[in-house]
Amino acid sequence: MAEALRLAEKGLYTATPNPRVGCVIVRDGEAVGAGWHEKTGEPHAEVLALRAAGERARGATAYVSLEPCSHHGRTPPCVDALIEAGIARVVAAMQDPNSRVAGSGFAALRAAGILVESGLMQDEARALNIGFVARMSRGRPWVRMKIAASLDGRTALANGRSRWITGPEARRDGHAWRARACAVLTGIGTVRDDDPQLNVREVETTRQPLKVVVDSRLQLPLSAKLLASGKVLVAAAVEDKPAIAALQDQGAEVVLLPDARGKVELTDLMRELARRELNEVHVEAGFKLNGALLVSGLADELLIYVAPSILGDSARGMFSLPELAHLAQKRLVQFADVQPIGGDLRILARVLN
Length: 353
What we know:
Elements: H1 2-8, E1 22-27, E2 30-36, H2 45-53, E3 61-64, H3 78-84, E4 89-92, H4 104-111, E5 115-118, H5 122-128, H6 130-138, E6 142-149, H7 168-180, E7 183-187, H8 188-194, E8 210-214, E9 232-236, H9 241-249, E10 253-256, H10 266-275, E11 280-283, H11 287-295, E12 301-306, E13 333-341, E14 344-351
Parallel strand pairs: 3-4, 4-5, 6-11, 6-12, 7-8, 7-11, 8-9, 9-10
Antiparallel strand pairs: 1-2, 1-3, 12-14, 13-14
Helix pairs in contact: 3-4
């Protein structure tokens, strides 16, 4: 199963919107076939592993990182291929959270007389497909918020300047996290202050994530670097037809999602991104949008790079949050991973409340 998960990870940057899946066929203690799903429309991991195994698949065990699909999507059902190949046993890391599968793949295999086991290395499998699981189980993508900060938690000077707080190694690592995401989300304030490109440059990738800009009043400059290449979605709260037409002329798409206060309804935005089959959203924004996402309960994970520097209390912080009257109101996180990246420290933490 560890090898199946290692193969599945090869689809980290390319498999979306599908899950990352790997499969290994074992017969008499020997791996006779293996495969992984690269991208939508191409054969699934099980099919590729069966092709590699050939006749040796008959009577063998298939180790697969996700329950085999049982429905006709862009490709035929994998359960049919496993049954036809004469597989005797299937060991899956986890059940598919997709309601179109959700146990029906296991049921079809058992009905065909195949022994089915599930749960081996389940935590690792869920972590690899955390965005797909989130989208399928709750109708929202997994939101990972990337923040570069000084040791005293400051992300930019009072004038908005933030280049560069962290070193080149941390920035390169941040691009690797961008590359695995389906979308990179920012706010109009960050566009005004930094004019970012929001694309993946520091690591090799065959796919660029969608760029999403939260811009309630449609103030995005037509000269913004992020408009120069790739797909751009602007989430707004006002129907300014001339501004919308100008952005569309630049190749951007505009979606109107107003809330009662004239801001973008962030929960509706996340549902819209899920509707577009986006699994993971990588946030690179300022303290206002960061705080709004946290308060709305939409931030799942924090990816924080801490630099060995101090900027002082006049500099901007990580989150704009309402003042707390009691420590019991504090927001809790759970550290998942802490490690040095170059001269900086990378902290990966899950938001608990």
